[in-house]
């Protein structure tokens, strides 16, 4: 069960499609010029426990899926699905659509291994809908195979420690297991995107070690590769094979 700190948060559904005081051009432009260390300082200024290995912060929020407004809660996947939860800065930007469509184009690979994908930004669900309804050739998304979640109050980004001092989310990505525990996280600055291939590889490694608790996966492990035993004697077989 999630702690009170991780209690569900509800995102307001109809309060404005703009984030007050933050322009897309201004937020993106200033952040690209800032050093990554400056952004990191703003996110981690208070002592907080690491997310990896702990229950994922719960949330309940409005989202867009299949060109309709729906409500998404993290709890709805607990016990049934792994979740790839990724944050991106803003709708109608530049790197973001390349990531969002890349995950959608390969959604079946995640679905085949009991995994749901959720994208999150601080935009409203109305902005998400407009972007989905824009053709890819015009910088839009077209139809997506997974929900885009609205975090208009920035509560979800704050809970996952990815809210920058510019008021937008850094490119954080979290893999949450079926028990609701965060098993993996990465955070990129704004100017460069993430890899679907690497996300799948890490997800498959997580699932393997959870199904085979007496084994661990070495660097770069992919399904079919050799694993090792996590003890001085048992690991010798692996090291002798490389």
TrEMBL record:
Catalytic activity: a hydroperoxide + [thioredoxin]-dithiol = an alcohol + [thioredoxin]-disulfide + H2O
Span of domain Thioredoxin: 50-208
InterPro entries to which the protein is assigned, alphabetical: AhpC/TSA, Peroxiredoxin, Peroxiredoxin_C, Thioredoxin-like_sf, Thioredoxin_domain
Region entry Disordered, spans: 1-30
The keyword Nucleus belongs to this UniProt entry's keyword annotation: no
EC numbers: 1.11.1.24
Protein family membership: Belongs to the peroxiredoxin family. AhpC/Prx1 subfamily.
UniProt name for this protein: thioredoxin-dependent peroxiredoxin
